[in-house]
Amino acid sequence: MEDPEQLKKTVKALSARFDGGFLELARALRRLQEIHPQGFAEVVGWPEIGRRRGYYLVAISRVFDGLAIPDARLDALGWTKAQAIAPFATAENAGELVALAEQYTVYELEVLVKDLPDAGERCVLLRMSEADYALFIERMTAYGAVRSGRGLAGKEAALRKLLEAAPPPIGASHGGPTEGGAA
């Protein structure tokens, strides 16, 4: 078992060169939290770490340790971008999320990941002419979507209402997916 006092010294040294990479510090904080919670509470009280950053770093370590993302690539992102994608990262999508983080600012990234589909959901992208988009907005707002910035809020529920209100196609036995799973 690691010596908590030595681990605190390691955390102190790593926090002094925090800009050089955060993963090593994140892992040391995580180990300290696991073996000596009181010592962890003490070090996140240090101004160079801070409570919020300390907990974020531990969360980043928990998510990304063991995933097939090179440390250098994560360190190059910075801890704020890693923290933004960590709640959504899985073994299946971590590479894609890191690629997004490499392309976008933290603010843009937070907006992007907020709309990621949950397991079992599908994402649909529609390309429309101006006239078709105007009709889309008109119908979606009629069924409960609300204009929000340049887009719509509540569009999924509104689309579901619109689809349920539409008559079934001629010859269809029901309004759900066909036996083969295709709609």
Any descriptors?
183 residues, mainly alpha, two-stranded antiparallel ribbon, 10 helices, 2 strands, elongated, disordered C terminus
Q: Topology, pairings included?
A:
Elements: H1 4-16, H2 23-35, H3 37-43, H4 51-64, H5 71-77, H6 79-85, H7 94-103, H8 106-114, H9 130-142, E1 146-148, E2 151-153, H10 155-165
Antiparallel strand pairs: 1-2
Structure description:
By secondary structure, the chain is mainly alpha-helical. 57% of the residues lie in helices and 3% in strands. The protein has a two-stranded antiparallel ribbon with strand order 1-2. α2 (23-35) packs across α3 (37-43). The chain starts with a helix and ends in an 18-residue tail after the last helix.
* First and last CA, distance: 57 Å
Largest sheet: 2 strands, antiparallel
- Share of residues in strands: under 5%
Low-pLDDT regions: 179-183
Residue-averaged pLDDT: 87
Write down the overall geometry.
elongated
What string, H for helix and E for strand, traces the elements in order? HHHHHHHHHEEH
Radius of gyration: 23 Å
Tally of alpha and pi helices? 10
Number of strands: 2
Estimate percent helicity: 55-70%
Strand arrangement in the largest pleated sheet: 1-2
Pairing-aware structural class of the strands and helices? mainly alpha
